[in-house]
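Render Threonine dehydratase in 3D.
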Amino acid sequence: MISKEDFTKLHLEISPYTHRTPVLTSDLLNKLAKTEIYFKCENFQKMGAFKMRGATAAILALSKKERAKGVVTHSSGNFAQAVSLSAKNLGIPAYIVMPSSAPQVKKDAVKTYGGQITECEPNIKARETAAEKIQKETGATFLHPSNDLNVIYGQGTGAKELLEDFPDLDIIITPVGGGGLIAGTALAVDFYTKKCKTIGAEPFEVDDAYRSLKTGKIETNSSTNTIADGLKTQLGDKNFPIIQKFVSEIIRVEEEEIINAMKLIWERMKIVVEPSSAVAFAAILREKEKFRNKKVGIIISGGNVDLSNLPF
């Protein structure tokens, strides 16, 4: 496990390649939720999501020899964009496996950032097979979107910044998909605070992380019928132990609650957030008593939205 000193050093190393994103508040949303909310806006991060942090950290951790051969990943959107842009910034090739069902807006963004796309069937087995083939042919290093320790550490730097700006937070809440963001956030909370808790939020339709904490083993989902397309993946063996140790609980929300929370953020804060980002705010609205009169940080995970397919 990384030390606090190395975590701080990693944050400094990725800083030239990432934005220090703003923290926004809304009096109206605070009154509605009956709490104080501090939105860490990773929708304003380079390429539009927190994953820029983890992708940059993972590539910087490679040797010169490894970097020369490039990197490969599989992703439906945000990590694909993050790896493509990070690789471009560092002057190395990026090979991206994307499911055919990925939003066209995300495919277009990957191409803009210089990523070389290979499309596959929309299932995890097809993704992994295609990525392994590219790895063998090119010698590129595989980067997992969420189950890679350097990726996890990078993702946690957003929470570190939030805690530097607001050190008296009681809770930080993040959406949970593959587990990289919440694991990194939980590490940052453990390193830089004494009283703050880390809580996760996920849809009922893909509640594998909630069930995994209950059973003590990594659970899977039989279906992925959720609007929160970034949360359809599952936990991994690198991030799950961190989540078990440092995450207090995971709150589940309904699809209509996600849409309502997303709409409120768009209307009241005038910022673009994707459905996955709205899950954390939806959890606060669902469990108002749990958060009443607390100071709560939310990691707004991203703002890459297909504007032709909004839920409202």
